[in-house]
Specification:
The structure is a single chain. This protein is an alpha/beta fold. It has three domains: about 80 residues, no CATH class; about 375 residues, 3-Layer(aba) Sandwich (Alkaline Phosphatase, subunit A); about 55 residues, Alpha Horseshoe (Serine Threonine Protein Phosphatase 5, Tetratricopeptide repeat), CATH 1.25.40.10. Strands 9-8-10-6-11-12-7-13 form an eight-stranded mixed sheet, with helices on both faces. The radius of gyration is 29 Å and the shape is globular.
Amino acid sequence: MKHQPRGASPRFPVVGRSAGTGRWRVPADTAIPHLCTLTSVRSLGFQCDQAVPCGSFFMNRSGRRTAGKSTAGHRARWRPALIAAVAAAGLLLWWWAPGRRVRAPIERVVLISIDTCRADHWGCYGHSGGTTPNIDMLAGQGIRFTRAMAPVPLTLPSHSSMFTGQNPPVHGVHHNYNYRLDDAAVTLAEIMQQHAYATGAVLGAFVLHSQYGLHQGFDDYDDHFLIDDGSPADVHYERRAAEVSRLAVQWLAQHADEPFFLFLHYFDPHQSYDPPEPFASRFGQDEYAAEIAYTDANIGLVLEKLKQLNLYDSTLLIVTSDHGEMRGEHGEQTHGFFIYQGVIHVPLVVKLPGRNEPKTYEGTMGLVDLLPTICGLMGWDIPPGVEGVDLHPVLLGDMPLDAESGQVYCESMMPTIYGAHSLLGIVTDRWKYIQTKRPELYDLRVDPDELNNVIAQHPDQARRLEARLSRAVSVTAPDIRDASGGAVNEQTRRSLEALGYVAANVREQWQLDATKDDPKDLAAFHDLGTRIYAMTERGKYEEARQLCMKMIRQRPAYWYGHVQLAKIAEKQGDDAETIAHYRLALKGNPDHVDSRCRLGVALLQRGEIDEAIGHLQRTVELLPGFAAAQFYLAYGLQRAGRREDAIRHFVEGLEIQPDDVDARLRLARILREQGRHDRSLMHYDKLLKLQPDDARLRAERADLLHDMGRES
């Protein structure tokens, strides 16, 4: 059979919207000759791509009629195909007839992402424990995708692909730590907003905080994590599913009478597990399944609210996950390191408005396809630069795609933290190729658990997939970390580590490098690293220190082990050990921003002002958008008597982080001491907007006004 492009079917023509023109296209190699000559088909707005002009009219989506040239000879060649064309036109009219597609505009979209959720733990994917009755109900009324793939087994980069329709090499986000989605990215929420939809999001964890850039296009982006009494709690970095659903239900009630897009992020299946009752007792030792069941129950509350508001049948509902969990497979306990199917294969269920029949799509697709597919369902143009495929013909009419044509890109840069090779992969319906020091090829049809590397038996197949992978990474975004607007700071690091992530810089590696270690040899080493922070937070400092020393003995070049030892020393109040280990870390990685900043802070605390200033100046050179480093540098300069320089860095830091009360107060006081009363007063006024009930601020402002000879 002739090779079909992705999006094609051996039985049906590729009918899609051409980029930039908004026209519906019938390709030149379709078996339907000169379809655009038929008035009934022209009314559908199809464009003919036949190489020989047929001389008839076609319509673009704006209704403009365009004519081509005609010859008698061409008409004569065309007439014998008339009967076949009429029959084909009838087929297409049936295909696009009422009842076969959603003709009314979709006015409501709810996208639900369950963090760290394996596909095989949903009932509709074969789990027998009753984990997901509400999601199973949706699957019984919609389309279940059996081979949906995530691009990265980490939350931020995977959601960046979900929201932009781009793979990580293009959108540039490769890790949770020290990355931010660029403001130039066009997100799904921005597209919705441009079409006058209310846009809201409720986040389950700090890892999708607005500072990472996914808030673009949202009118409401609820990433404020609170404890039960409603007071701010910086030590809380996630919220439970019940709280996500409570806020979601509240938002739905407020926006029920207008078109809307609501994104919900549930974090509960992510380690560490702590399922509430009755789910904990029901699932016993399987706390992971209990967390999924608890999440499903709370998703059920959102679905019930949609029904109460009479919105359920008119809402496009999408439920998926950003990545899975390895759970010990291939030696990895959690996720982020490897790109095996346990973390790349994700569940996906889509329920269309007004549809209630269950269907299954078995082709390979990716989370990167969600944005263009939603645009296709809405009848909107797909933004330039989108790499995903518009699958809305599949959703609307059971149009199958060529099973051999789909491919999905995946990656993990996390092994580079340890000096190992990156992992880059291509997944098709049958094959999976992983580029690393010892490349891997798996036949997923016979080996879904990826236990038998068959690259030696199928070298030609490996070369073909390697070539596809090379094309996939041929255009990469510039390293955007240094433009992250201050994404790296102590609070960020603590927040990510509290969620179980290794908060260290990755290195973006795209080419084979035989000098690097193979990640397969470092799975156990990585597992040690993920355990250290948990021990430190539980106060098991000596155990954590011993693990760090063990890792450094195994790999003397593992500079991040000294970062971890420095943080343990910080917890114990040992300034000398803190400084010593940060120095050793910087020998291994001189540009590690967090280590250089923390060393500067430790030296400030020891009174070694000049050296502290040097490290902090280097920090802001490396990352000008690091507000905390600007403030620490300003403190040091102030202590050194360099007030003008201190003022400059306070101002630069406040441009990045304007709500920092301590920094603004210090600046206001310096300006007052220098007699710059008007500027000082401006900062006191801004402080009182932030903290209107602060008696101390009011008293200082009153004293300043007295100095100025004015009444308060």
